[in-house]
Structures are given as structure tokens and as C-alpha cells.
Automatic annotation (TrEMBL):
Sequence ranges assigned to domain Phosphoribosyltransferase in this UniProt record: 115-182
Organism: Paralabilibaculum antarcticum
Lineage, broadest ranks: Bacteria, Pseudomonadati, Bacteroidota, Bacteroidia, Marinilabiliales
PANTHER family hit by this protein: DNA UTILIZATION PROTEIN YHGH
Protein name per its UniProtKB record: ComF family protein
Similarity field: Belongs to the ComF/GntX family.
Domain of life per record: Bacteria
Length: 183
């Protein structure tokens, strides 16, 4: 694992991230795209946990992720989570937690606004769609902690950036990022 990988570079000059990594590079038509699609749209929740667990095995052996205190998945808006029935980022976080032996926290970082899907938006539209839509319920719970922020896929990084800005309002907090795929 390299410190200055394409995922880390994505956040340079945007938000202070300690480390960032993705398990796969996402390519259209690949078997991995098929797995992510099944996870997100076909209720194949076990895929998220299994991939998270495998990814966690590599992360726990990396010097960059050894001091993680807490794993936080990117939250869905309650309306979207009710429609889907689950949060795929949370499933990945559960798998990571099993391998890395770190707790998952899902109730502190919340999504305030229900937004449109990002899939058909360009970089600027994606950022405008998620700007300031996340908030910490209790910043003191994250003070002086190294947080592993988790999502399924990173494309432009706008959602993760917005989440990281919210988390970094906690005094002394540090954020690293882990996603299953980099598109």
C-alpha cells in the first residue's frame, strides 16, 4: 500500500485526509462491477460484508491503518435507507470491523439532506449535491480519534470529502478513507 496513491491524491487540497485506499479499481463490465451492482441494487448484503472482511485483512497489516480507533460508514439519508432496506457502506464497515477488530459507529455522523443520485452528475454537480449535508451529532465522541471513513465506491470524492469535513470538526480528529472501489 502506497501513501500517495490515486485515491489519496483525489483529496489533496480539498480536505485533510491522513490516508486513503481502495480495494479495487472499478472498470465497466468487470466482475467487480457486477458484485457492487448486486450489493447496491439486488439486496446481496453478504457481498458487502465479505468484501469488507477481505479488504480489512490487507488494511490491518498496513502501517497506515494500524492506529484506527473507529470505523464510520458514509450514512444514507433515512428515506433512501428505508427504500433500499440497508446501507451498503455499513455492510462494508461491518466486514472491515471483523478483520480489523475495530468498532463501527453509525449514529454520530448523519446525513441531513436527501439528495439525488450522484451517478449521472459531473464533478461540480456532485460537490454541489453533497456540500454541507453531513453533521456530527456529538463531536466529543470523535475527539482525538483516528476515524476510518468507509464507502463502497469513490468517483470524484465529493461525498467522502463532505463527510470528512464534518468529522474534522471534532477536536483532534483524523480521517482516513477506505472504499471497495475507485472509479
Amino acid at each position: 500500500m502506497e501513501k500517495n496513491n490515486p485515491v489519496s491524491i483525489l483529496f489533496w487540497g480539498r480536505v485533510k485526509i491522513k490516508y486513503a485506499a481502495s480495494y479495487y479499481t472499478f472498470s465497466k463490465g468487470s466482475q467487480f462491477q457486477n458484485l457492487i451492482h448486486k450489493l447496491k441494487y439486488h439486496n446481496k448484503q453478504e457481498i458487502g460484508i465479505a468484501l469488507g472482511r477481505h479488504f480489512g485483512e490487507s488494511l490491518k497489516n498496513s502501517e497506515f491503518f494500524k492506529d484506527i480507533d473507529l470505523i464510520i460508514p458514509v450514512p444514507l439519508h433515512p428515506k433512501k435507507e428505508k427504500i433500499r432496506g440497508y446501507n451498503q457502506a455499513n455492510l462494508v464497515a461491518i466486514g472491515l470491523s471483523k478483520s480489523m477488530q475495530k468498532p463501527v459507529q453509525t449514529a454520530n455522523l448523519i446525513r441531513l439532506v436527501h439528495t439525488d443520485s450522484q451517478t449521472k452528475k459531473n464533478k461540480l454537480e456532485r460537490w454541489q449535491n453533497v456540500e454541507s449535508i453531513f453533521e456530527l451529532m456529538d463531536p466529543t465522541l470523535l475527539e482525538n480519534k483516528h476515524i476510518l471513513l468507509v464507502d463502497d465506491v469513490v468517483t470524484t470524492g465529493s461525498t467522502l470529502e463532505s463527510c470528512a469535513h464534518a468529522i474534522l470538526k471534532a477536536e483532534g480528529a483524523q480521517v482516513s478513507i477506505a472504499t471497495l472501489a475507485y472509479a
